[in-house]
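FW: tagging you since you asked about this chain on Friday. Here's the raw sequence from the shared folder, copied in full. Didn't touch anything.
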Amino acid sequence: MRFIINFFIFGFIFYLIYLFFPEAFATLVSWAHQVYDFFHDLVIRMQERWYSTGAPEKVTTPAALFKI
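HL: got it, structure written out here
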C-alpha cells in the first residue's frame, strides 16, 4: 500500500515539475536518458565480451590432448 501511495506522490511531484519548471524537467529527463544509455552500453559490452570468448574446443583425439 505504501508503494502505491509513494508512486502517486512522486508522479504528482514530477508532474508539477513538468508543469511549472519545464527546463528542470528536461534536465531530469536528459540525466535519466544518460543513465539508461550507460547501463545499456554496459550490458551490450558484457554480452560482446561473453560471446567473444566462444565455446571451448572439443577434444576428440588423443593427439589433440597433447598438442602433437
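FW: The chain has a mean pLDDT of 87.
HL: agreed, and The two ends are 68 Å apart (CA to CA).
FW: great, closing this out.
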